[in-house]
Amino acid sequence: MEKLTIEQTVVTSKQKIGNTTLKEPWLIRLILTTISLLFLLIFLVLPLVTIFITAFKKGLDVYIASITEPDALSAIKLTLLVAVIAVPINTLFGIAAAWAITKFNFRGKNLLTTLIDLPFAVSPVIAGLVFILLFGAEGLFGDLLSNYNVQIIFSLPGIILASLFVTVPFVARELIPLMQTQGTQEEEASISLGAGALTTFLKVTLPNIKWGLLYGVILCNARVMGEFGAVSVVSGHIRGLTNTMPLHIEVLYNEYQFSAAFAVASLMSLLALFTIIIKNIIEWRTKQ
Amino acid sequence: MKKTKKLAAFLAASSLAMVISGCSSSEQNSSGSTTNKSINLLNVSYDPTRELYEEFNKSFIKEWKDETGQTVKIQQSHGGSGKQGRAVIDGLKADVVTLALAYDIDEIAANRNLINKDWQEELPDHSSPYTSTIVFLVRKGNPKSIHDWNDLVKKGVSVITPNPKTSGGARWNYLAAWGYADRKYQGDQAKIKDFMKKLYNNVEVLDSGARGSTTTFTERQIGDVLIAWENEAYLSLKELGEDKFEIITPSLSILAEPPVAVVDKNAKAKGTEKVAKAYLEYLYTDEGQEIAAKNYYRPRNEKILEKYKDHFPNLDLIKIDDFGGWQKAQKEHFSDGGTFDSIYTPKN
Amino acid sequence: MTTTFFHKKRLTVLPGFKLSIGFTLLYLSILILLPLSMLFWNTMQLSWHDFIKIISDSRVVASYKLTFGTSFLAAIINVFFGTIIAWVLVRYDFVGKKLMDGLVDLPFALPTAVAGIALTALYAPNGWIGNLFPFKIAFTPIGIIIALTFIGLPFVVRTVQPVLQNFSTESEEASASLGANRWKTFIKVIFPELIPAILTGFTLAFSRALGEYGSVVFIAGNMPMKTEITPLLIMTKLEQYDYPGATAIAIVLLISSFMILLIMNIIQWLANRKYSV
């Protein structure tokens, strides 16, 4: 999503030097900025503030206790484990899919792109359900799995599969428009100069797409960690074993431990804010 | 070109292998339970029993250790009763199920012989070691002066109850109200249905689970009255403030019998039959009954019930058998096209 | 694969077509197509008559209307405000811009259940925002729209933003030097360029909203015929051990989303072709 930063600075400097006709009257700018800020305030900031206020309502002790108790810790561990496995797989997929779609011409491209988008549009409830229909005891592979005593649903593999399903489009979606605008000339030049396929990818393509790639990975990671609906269907909700952080939050909330629930939720929001900060730091560094 | 095909297959295979490798590690978790050192038990239960089983498990673990020297680890899973039943059918490896209604255990028993068909005869009192009933929670001072079911159908009274389609507890609520109307109108179907319609027209939020309804009533402060499990009502008093709410016991309610059962097939496969059975039997001992009573479930044991009688007022209780059992009640009232659906079907 | 589909048409020197397309197709087949085909497999247990009866039941139809209506409105709200936000983020400088930029991703990162709980707390009659209004927001369709707007915002902002960033100011300058005022320039020069991105954002936000469950159940109130969304009905069927019924409704939802996405991708593709020629 982050475009070439050089280009960006060129654009902004041009605007600064360039004629004032490219700018809106200050009143319009003020109104537009105010609208944006108000909208974000009402829809994003206030919910976030609610989470933090409720989290600290009963004091710092309760906050720390609720994120360090064994069930919470195992939920955090499980969530991280799922992310560590699911994100690289979908990153690899995203790169492969974007490469095929943007560097070559073939029939059925629209269909393929739509297929990649589809998980965005599939209800999380359905996303979980289909894996139960597939791997559940009554499902298509149910007998096969129970014969070999392999458990997929209601344990780690099921949670990973559901997370993979939900986040398939994230990396690919970021890369496709980016690589489309970049065309194929640079790579073609590199190949015709005798560079190997891998070298071309690493030296020519990767530097061009790294921001989009990073951004896609960050979003994919955030969604993997935050997925609730699909994972809830396949997890089995066993405390300390198959509860991810979002599920643990629901458990706490249902136990009337609102502060504890929001404490874990605030931890997840911090995680989100943290990745955003990292993104900005990397951006700033490359600009230097 | 052949090489690339192989490579593609290799990449796809290896990424999925990573997923499967996750399953072998989790498998070790469960197969490790067969060693004599420590044993794992999974209790799949419904929402309002969290506090009960947290206390009960501690007591049982100690008891089992003293008696056999074996360490037993008990894992809990909570959720809506129907959802939990479905998870067990779909392969959640529960050793015991402790659910909200017999219907959900019947469903499990109907699938792959997971549970013996006559499970209800295996333990005393229809395999339900504790009971509860349905009461009202109102705001302090009872500003709308709600005392019985007929106060709920009055104009301007806002009622909170979960959706009987998704919540086991809500089905007890529904049947209790039906039972009251049945007695009041002496079985006149049209009048009963009219009563139910008025009642559900007063419902302001139909949450998907019992805990959701409690939150709506207590935290969001919506509604004048919450129809709830007796144990849930007491728990919300305890957790959320005795100064804010009070409990009203109606003239007539229903005897809710949350059942328990060993999931025979799973227990056999995991070698946990003995401990699973002992676990459920422990619910009927004095200790088990005491813990149930402390968590506001009505114990079966008369002596312990007497001890906690302040919490459990006497009232007229109808039974699920008055509806012809759960199979019949489910079909008549809650299946698609049942009486509950007809409440919300617009007349053409 | 068949020879007509997924077959490279133009010759290019670039390597890795077979590798990347093979991996993509295999991965998608295993992870998406196979699981989703289970929906059709399960629904086939129903007769055609029963299938139609389930998906055209009056309560189900009421839920379609609600789900599609609220999703559509939420997507429209997002297009309007999302485009403004993207514009402000790209074109203007002000304190806290970076923070604002980062915040836009919050709905992606926050678990939907948490979002639902937080929004309900805010918009309930006794909440900070809810008590400012004389009418109920949470537990009505308005509450549903709010939750869906929250969920869909990043889709619009994040598709419009890069296009604006890449937008060359030359055509704007040309337009301005020809005497067009700012508004005219925006409508005639900038906006047409944004349409494909806005459309993508709209479609993604819309189809995402159709399936949303976690955040909506908290704020919706779930009253049959009034505030009961279609994903909740699927859940309801599941709780009753009615898999074929659940998958039947799921298929309706899935096909609608798929069609919407497909139409968008075709429009995109047509627009792209116009450029490259």
Please characterize this protein's 3D structure:
The complex is a heterotrimer of chains A (288), B (348) and C (277). Chain A is mainly alpha-helical and 288 residues long. Chain A folds into two domains: 45 residues, no CATH class; 230 residues, MetI-like fold (Orthogonal Bundle), CATH 1.10.3720.10. Chain A has 13 helices and no strands. In chain A, helix 5 crosses helix 8. Chain A is globular and about 65 Å long. Chain B is of the alpha/beta class. Chain B has two domains: 157 residues, D-Maltodextrin-Binding Protein, domain 2 (3-Layer(aba) Sandwich), CATH 3.40.190; 152 residues, Periplasmic binding protein-like II (D-Maltodextrin-Binding Protein, domain 2), CATH 3.40.190. Chain B contains 16 helices and 13 strands. In chain B, helix 2 packs antiparallel against helix 13, helix 3 runs parallel beside helix 4 and helix 7 packs across helix 8. Chain C has a single domain, classed as MetI-like (MetI-like fold). The longest helix of chain C has 34 residues. The mean pLDDT of chain C is 86. At the B-C interface, helix 1, helix 3 and strand 7 of B face helix 1 and helix 11 of C.
Q: Which CATH top level class of chain C fits?
A: Mainly Alpha
What would you call the structural class of chain C?
Answer: mainly alpha
Going by helix content, strand content and strand pairing, the class of chain A is mainly alpha
CATH topology of the largest domain in chain A: MetI-like fold
CATH architecture of chain C: Orthogonal Bundle
Using the 3D structure, state the CATH architecture of the largest domain in chain A.
Orthogonal Bundle
Mean pLDDT figure of chain C: 86
Count of helical stretches of chain A? 13
- Multimeric organization: heterotrimer
The general outline of chain C is globular
The third-level CATH topology of chain C is MetI-like fold
Any idea how many domains of chain A? 2
Helical stretch count of chain C?
12
Number of strands of chain C: 0
Proportion of residues in helical segments of chain C: over 70%
Query: Quick one: how many beta strands of chain A?
Result: 0
Number of structural units classed as domains of chain C: 1
What percentage of amino acids of chain C are in beta strands? under 5%
Poorly predicted runs of chain C are none
> Span between N and C termini of chain C?
29 Å
- CATH homologous superfamily assignment of chain C: MetI-like
